[in-house]
Amino acid sequence: MLSLNQVSKHYDNKKMRRGKPVKAVHEVSFELQPNEIFALIGESGSGKSTLAEMIVGLQKPTSGSIIRSEPSASIQMVFQNPDRSMNPYWRIKDIIAEPLILSKRKKQAALEQVSQLAEKVKLPLDILDRYPTECSGGQKQRIAIARALTMSPKLLVADEITSALDPSIEAEIMQLLLSLKDAEGMSILYITHRIETISRFADRVAVMRNGEIEALGGTNEVLFHSSSAYTKALMYACSYEDNSRDTSSSE
Ligand SMILES: Nc1ncnc2c1ncn2[C@@H]1O[C@H](COP(=O)(O)OP(=O)(O)OP(=O)(O)O)[C@@H](O)[C@H]1O
User: Fold this and answer.
1) 194 Cβ closer than 6 Å to some ligand 1 atom
2) Start-to-end Cα distance in the chain
3) Residue 116 CA from chain centroid, whole number
4) Ligand 1 site, residue 49, Cβ cutoff 6 A
5) Domain locations in the chain as residue ranges
6) pLDDT tens by residue, 24-64
7) C-alpha–C-alpha distance, residues 156 and 33, integer Å
8) Would you call 97 exposed, middle or buried from its count of C-beta atoms within 10 A (0-12, 13-18, 19+)?
9) What backbone torsions phi and psi does residue 197 show, to the nearest 5 degrees?
10) What is the largest CA-CA distance in the chain?
11) Does residue 46 have its Cβ closer than 6 Å to ligand 1?
C-alpha cells in the first residue's frame, strides 16, 4: 500500500553558524503491507518523525521516492502531543467533526458520525460536550484517533502517541489500535522509542539509527534474533531497566 525507495532527507543547516549537514533520513527503503502494524523504533534523533512526516506528505524527501497506492486522505497521522492539534476553545464533538465539516458533510450528519466514532474509540459520550482541558491525556489521544478515523484511513501513522502516558493507559491505547486495525481494515505505522512495548503488538519492526534502517523484519525475529549489535543493545538496555524497576519495587 506504500512503498519507500531510497528515501533521504538531508538538512544543509547552512544558516546556522558552524552548522553541519544532517542526514536525518538516509536511503530508507521498505514497503508497508495492507492491514499490518509496522513499528518504527529508535533513539531520539534517529529520524523517525522526519520519516513519518515524509510518509504523510508533510515534508518532501531530498531524494528517493514514496509511492502511495491510496489517496492522501487515506493516510492520517496522530502526534505525541494532541494539544497542538486541538483548538482549546472548541468542544470535543466539534474537534472530531472538523474534517467532516471541511469535506462538506452536513453538520447534523457529521455530529451523528462523531457519536459513532466516540463509541469506536471507547470514549464516554459525555466527553463530547467538554473542552480539551477537561480531558485526560489518554482521552485526548482517543479523540485524536477518532478524528483521524473520520477520513476512513487505510494507514494511520502514530508518532509516539503513547510516550507521555502512564504504562496502563499506554497498554489500553495499544489495545485499541490492535482492535481498530482489524475493525477498520487499516495498517498502522507505530513510532516509538520504547522497544519493550511492541513485542506482542507489531507484526513487523524496523530499527532506525542515525537516519538509516539498522534492522527490519518480523517483530520476534528482530527483537530476539537480530544480528544487529545496536538492536541487541536496545533490548539489553530495556530489559536492564525493567529488572531494575522490579528490584526497586520489591524493596
Ligand atoms: N528542520 C530541521 N532542520 C535541521 N535538522 C533537523 C530538522 N528536523 C530534524 N532535524 C534533525 O534530524 C534528525 C532526526 O530528527 P527526528 O525528529 O526525525 O528524530 P526522531 O527519531 O523522531 O527523534 P525524537 O524521538 O526525539 O522525536 C535529528 O538530528 C534532528 O536534529
Assistant:
1) no
2) 50
3) 23
4) yes
5) 1-70+156-173+189-251
6) 999 999 999 999 999 999 999 999 999 999 999 999 999 99
7) 13
8) buried
9) -90, -10
10) 59
11) yes
3-state secondary structure of 11: strand
Give this complex's ipTM.
0.95
Q: Is the dihedral of CA 118, 179, 42, 55 positive or negative?
A: negative
Host H or E run for residue 1: none
Q: Any idea which fold 1-70+156-173+189-251 has?
A: Rossmann fold (3.40.50)
Closest C-alpha to ligand 1, atom 10: 24
Query: Which residues does residue 78 pair with via DSSP β-bridges, in sequence order?
Result: 158
Q: Under 8 Å CB-to-CB from 249, ≥6 apart: which residues?
A: none
Q: Is the pLDDT of residue 247 over 80?
A: no
Beta-carbon-side half-sphere exposure of residue 27 (alpha carbons within 13 Å): 1
Strand-pair partners of 76? 156
CA gap 110, 130 in Å, rounded: 17
Tell me which residue of 239, 223, 172 sits closest to 39, measured CA to CA: 223
